[in-house]
Amino acid sequence: MDSRRNRDRLSTLPEHLLVPIISNLPFEEAVRTSVLAKPWKHLYHGTTNVSFKESEFVKRTVSSSEESLNEARAAFVRFVVNWASRFSGDVIQSFELRLSKPFGFEAEIKHLIEFAVSKQVKILVLDFSDLSCTASNQARPAVLFQLPECVYNQTAIESLKLFACDFDPLRLANPCSFKSVCFGHTQLGRIMTLLSKSPLLESLTVRNCWNVNLESITGVNNRLRELVFENCDFGTEYTLLDLPNIKIFKYTGSFHYFQFLTVNRRMEEAYLDYGAETDDEIGQLFCDVLYDLLSARKLTVCPFLIKAIKDSDDPVKLNAPMETRHLVIKTSLSPDEFVGIRLMINSCPELETLTLQMLPPVPVARTNPGFNPKSYWAFPISHKCLKKTLKVVEVRNFSGGTYELIVLRYLIRSGRVLERVDLYLPVGTSESEKSSVRATMSTLGDEGVASSKRLRIRQHDG
């Protein structure tokens, strides 16, 4: 009875109050409100947060022909154009359009972009990348979508996300209001021009782009708080970064050298995943990057980095103690990673949480690591964080492998203030495999009593 009364009370609200309420819903949900009652039928035409995604309108199956998909795309575009023609408001807060293979619909798309800009849109998302490919294996688009002139002349957009679009910063008429910019699947030969015209920029993300001629980020962009690169091809040998206010720095892809002139002394997160390994001796370069990012409270490192840093000038510790509280190590726990893992633990004297993100084992040529891997962790070497600060150890994708157990026993034996060991099983683990893991867990204390009396070991589903 109360729920019906509440619905009736909501229905009595005037339209100028209902539209802001609907605008806070995801656009798909806002459209569904049109069936709630007759007065609500056209309310979603006034919503100020708009998202049109081909994936939500065009259903793909294995048997879908390209002809049927093209027909569905055409119907999707007509729906969007129809919505725009019936829009009843004066302003749009956000406008998102995701359409693969936009060619053939250029006129309609440019009309929609002009419509959004005319409504003083603040958040504009245009994604014309190929839905049939994942982000990692998507080929460079043969042709990029050409943006209409209104995008370069506008002054209201604060957040801009462009995928598979040709964006030319030289055409920007005025200094931009951009606070957040994200590019994907495009070339960025003139990214320095964009930065010079974006003095308010706080977040820059670049994914799967090429010819990224980023020489430096300095001076005018000192508001930058988040900087993310994923799988990019750079047109410069190195990049200078002057980032006094940076909070988050993330890099995924082939090694590119960043020289940090200044960084925030209270960084929230640094993420370093250099993917495929090379034969280059760059262990000291990795150590230099870690030194620049030593203030990061959360740090994620990859197997390549872990293996390489042991060949730096000091194979025991980094250039200076890290201030990291949460260290995430992506690893397969192969013996050639052991020295680097111990080096990282030794270099984080204030570490509170250690996460081992287990990766599938990678076949490698049999080489002698110079020590017995089964006894390496048996030596009574205890690092400062194990004595004073480390309280939580997590193992993601735990399978109970030999080296997983050896490392865990070392941490349990040495962690004097350890409170929790959380073991997360891979998604899809069968009941029999869970039982086997539980039996394995019961052996973790067999080789000695845990140093911490408050320790609890728990198993979790992935």
Automatic annotation (TrEMBL):
The family database entries (Gene3D superfamilies) matched by this protein are listed as:
Ribonuclease Inhibitor
The residues covered by the F-box domain are 7-55
Protein name in the entry = F-box domain-containing protein
Write down the superkingdom of origin: Eukaryota
Q: Which InterPro entries match?
A: F-box-like_dom_sf, F-box_AtFBL13-like, F-box_dom, FBD, FBL13/AtMIF1-like, LRR_At1g61320_AtMIF1, LRR_dom_sf
A Pfam family of this chain = LRR_At1g61320_AtMIF1
Q: Which SMART domains match?
A: FBD
Family annotation (CDD domains):
F-box_AtFBL13-like
